[in-house]
Recover the amino acids of this structure.
């Protein structure tokens, strides 16, 4: 896979120990959601912040974490979908206001950000970054005009709902003595809560709670949030129920297989995608080979359904970052070969079905087909465990422009097959995808033409 995911957030209040090491570990588990920068804000009433470009364990290393005190905190891993990618854009984003500090960490994308920003600038607001997160915080500050310790969960939720409904925001606020967490009324991005011996925490993905003792997990609904203090927590609805728009790509690609997202285990969903793909797109072959990592579960499903054995025909170099991190096309192509290597003894003289979670630009897929042929594969049949991606995303996922998407470059699948040089190519149908997840309640926008 080949398009960029968004961000991850983790925060909460610890009981007996400083919160920083728990946030460090929580963010480490969420590293797959953003590898550009990492950051933490923690304290009690006062606030210490540390953030920079880099991976969690580089930026928030043990030396840094040891010096961050306090039992309340929020943290963030970032992949930039809006705003720049330098260290000033790292989150959490914090400001001083009326003698107090307030900070915010955001996963998602605010559709109305550009217009709102212009409006605020005309009113004299100054921005240090181009990110929608700063704009969001400054809008809240302007509306409330009082010291952050006086802010209430309900007031902040009302401002978010009135101004940013339609956007995607799973968001954490640190105000003195309190953490506020909100999931937008359409619920594009996931958010879960955990009550454990170590404290109460909120995270983009519930698998990050597995490090905690005796945890009890609650999946926060769209339009719901939670207020956490040293005295406890309360789950509250801050916005009326609206049609839910859960991002289906959280299930297909973004989230970790060991997470339960939107009420479904991600690994199990992906196995089902593969099974469905095998039912819809059978082909005679000798082995099924996954594009690691996210192609593994669908390949297993394809293999189980078709009876064709699963083989690890492509080895992944675990020390190479994900393909999309490299910004230029020529760099992306070479990085595929740095990331994946065929196991010649497995694929030589075989009819291979290669399974990937999706096809975006098609260049990765073509490199894989070429590699397999060079390794001696007799036939290469490509199967995508998701439908064609034909549209961009306005909710925080950095999909290439419509023109760059391979599905828009050719009139039919055979044109794409020729481009990727496969013997056959087929996608899971949109109808098949909806049969798995449901016709309602999900965002399928990037899989549908305008
Ligand atoms: S457009 Fe696609 S990537 Fe964006 S939120 Fe919807 S399903 Fe997810």
């Amino acid at each position: 896979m080949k398009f960029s995911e968004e961000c991850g957030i983790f925060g909460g209040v610890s009981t007996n120990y400083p919160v920083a090491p728990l946030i460090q570990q929580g963010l480490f588990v969420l590293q797959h959601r953003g590898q550009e920068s990492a950051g933490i804000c923690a304290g009690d009433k006062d606030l210490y912040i540390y953030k920079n470009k880099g991976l969690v364990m580089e930026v928030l290393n043990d030396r840094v974490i040891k010096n961050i005190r306090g039992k309340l905190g929020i943290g963030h891993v970032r992949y930039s979908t809006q705003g720049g990618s330098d260290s000033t854009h790292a989150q959490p984003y914090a400001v001083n206001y009326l003698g107090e500090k307030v900070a915010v960490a955001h996963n998602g994308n605010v559709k109305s950000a550009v217009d709102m920003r212009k409006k605020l600038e005309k009113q004299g607001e100054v921005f240090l970054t181009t990110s929608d997160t700063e704009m969001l915080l400054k809008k809240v500050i302007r509306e409330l005009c009082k010291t952050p310790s006086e802010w209430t969960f309900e007031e902040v939720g009302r401002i978010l709902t009135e101004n940013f409904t339609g956007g995607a925001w799973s968001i954490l606020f640190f105000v003195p003595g309190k953490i506020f967490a909100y999931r937008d009324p359409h619920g594009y991005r996931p958010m879960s809560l955990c009550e454990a011996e170590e404290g109460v925490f909120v995270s983009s993905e519930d698998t990050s709670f597995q490090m905690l003792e005796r945890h009890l997990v609650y999946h926060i609904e769209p339009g719901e949030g939670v207020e956490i203090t040293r005295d406890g927590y309360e789950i509250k609805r801050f916005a009326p129920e609206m049609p839910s728009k859960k991002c289906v790509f959280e299930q297909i690609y973004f989230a970790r297989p060991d997470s339960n997202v939107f009420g479904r285990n991600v690994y199990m969903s992906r196995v089902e995608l593969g099974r469905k793909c095998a039912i819809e797109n059978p082909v005679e072959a000798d082995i099924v080979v996954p594009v690691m990592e996210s192609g593994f579960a669908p390949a297993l499903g394809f293999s189980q359904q078709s009876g064709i054995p699963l083989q690890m025909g492509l080895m992944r170099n675990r020390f190479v970052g994900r393909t999309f991190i490299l910004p230029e096309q020529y760099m992306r192509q070479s990085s595929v070969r740095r990331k994946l290597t065929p196991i010649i003894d497995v694929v030589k003289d075989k009819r291979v079905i290669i399974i990937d979670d999706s096809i975006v630009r098609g260049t990765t897929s073509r490199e894989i087909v070429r590699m397999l042929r060079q390794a001696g594969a007799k036939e290469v049949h490509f199967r995508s465990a998701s439908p064609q991606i034909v549209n961009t995303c306005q909710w925080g996922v950095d999909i290439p422009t419509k023109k760059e998407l391979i599905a828009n470059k050719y009139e039919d699948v055979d044109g794409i097959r020729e481009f990727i040089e496969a013997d056959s190519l087929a996608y899971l149908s949109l109808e098949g995808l909806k049969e798995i997840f449901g016709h309602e309640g999900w965002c399928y926008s990037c899989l549908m033409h305008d």
Residues 266-280 form the longest helix (15 residues). The radius of gyration is 22 Å. Confidence is low (pLDDT under 50) at residues 322-327.
